[in-house]
């Protein structure tokens, strides 16, 4: 075996191997997660400037039989690398379409935002898959918002633009998630049928107290104004976060101040109970 120094590198190697084994085990388990009903859709409300609920974002959770509830930050990268994200993402889209139909059947027109990973967006069946779920459920396409990443926008603008154009004609909307963390240029953004930008919560968090983050948030709002896009500020935890955004023209908010993510059935129960009260 290789000789390694006593500088911490030796300790690092078993840790790396463990991480790799862990990842491998996770991938194996994830393969069966859908069939075993272990994946759950949770929802977090989105509100307008009056605090009125206008929609919700779907956030995945994995209820692992031994490990308990696993955060998407831990398994989405595994799903993305292994390609499992295509099946998982399609399942989430089906859940969104069904939920949307249930809500409109109860007279509730909420927009539902679904995260689409780059690999999921790149697959050739993306558009036909979404059309299938919309038709099967009878959901209104105009209530579906697809959250895409900035990297997607730059990587293959021709493919991205073609898919977005086709879905846009149906009424489906596009939101650029975590805006400001990537490197998309105005020139690229202008070529796409976008509806919205989401300001990443890492910027929102410190904007009221940190001049750099404040400038970034202002820059994003200015870009949005130029392009005629609406903006959602995410990670709004305090009235100070909301006021900072509101004073600078942000009109939509998401964060713990307005509601934590909740399991789908709980969200639906609350939503339908509100209607009767
Ligand atoms: P994201 O799309 O940026 O989602 C927002 C994350 O911020 C969520 O974390 C949400 O729970 C969290 N959050 C919301 N409000 C607050 C707040 O006020 N304060 C703080 N500190 N956090 C807040 P979550 O649910 O752990 O999801 C993490 C990421 O996993 C998401 O980030 C998204 O990139 C990814 N993800 C979740 N569901 C899906 C999915 O169905 N498909 C794909 N491709 N990715 C998903
Ligand atoms: Ca998102
Ligand atoms: Ca994120
Ligand atoms: Ca984010």
UniProtKB/TrEMBL annotation:
Every EAL domain range: 23-275
Transmembrane segments: none
Name of the protein in its database record: Diguanylate cyclase (GGDEF)-like protein/PAS domain S-box-containing protein
Signal peptide per UniProt: none
Domain of life: Bacteria
């Amino acid at each position: 075996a290789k000789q390694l120094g006593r500088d911490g590198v030796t300790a690092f190697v078993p840790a790396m191997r463990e991480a790799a084994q862990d990842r491998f085990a996770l991938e194996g388990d994830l393969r069966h997660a859908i069939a075993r009903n272990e994946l759950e859709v949770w929802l977090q409300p989105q509100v307008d400037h009056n605090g009125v609920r206008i929609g919700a974002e779907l956030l995945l959770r994995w209820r692992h039989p031994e490990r308990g509830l696993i955060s998407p930050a831990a398994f989405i990268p595994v799903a993305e690398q292994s390609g499992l994200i295509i099946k998982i993402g399609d399942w989430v889209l089906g859940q969104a379409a069904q939920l949307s139909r249930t809500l409109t059947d109860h007279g509730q027109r909420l927009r539902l935002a679904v995260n689409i990973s780059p690999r999921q967006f790149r697959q050739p069946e993306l558009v036909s898959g979404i059309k299938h779920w919309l038709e099967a459920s009878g959901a209104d396409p105009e209530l579906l918002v697809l959250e895409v990443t900035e990297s997607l926008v730059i990587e293959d603008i021709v493919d991205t633009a073609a898919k977005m154009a086709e879905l846009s004609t149906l009424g489906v909307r596009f939101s650029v998630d975590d805006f400001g963390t990537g490197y998309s240029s105005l020139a690229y953004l202008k070529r796409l049928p976008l509806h919205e930008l989401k300001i990443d919560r890492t910027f929102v968090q410190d904007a009221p107290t940190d001049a750099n983050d404040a400038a970034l948030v202002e820059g994003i709002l200015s870009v949005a104004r130029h392009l005629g896009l609406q903006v959602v500020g995410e990670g709004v935890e305090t009235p100070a976060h909301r006021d900072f955004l509101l004073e600078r023209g942000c009109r939509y908010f998401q964060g713990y101040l307005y509601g934590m993510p909740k399991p789908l059935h709980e969200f639906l129960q609350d939503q339908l109970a509100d209607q009767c009260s």
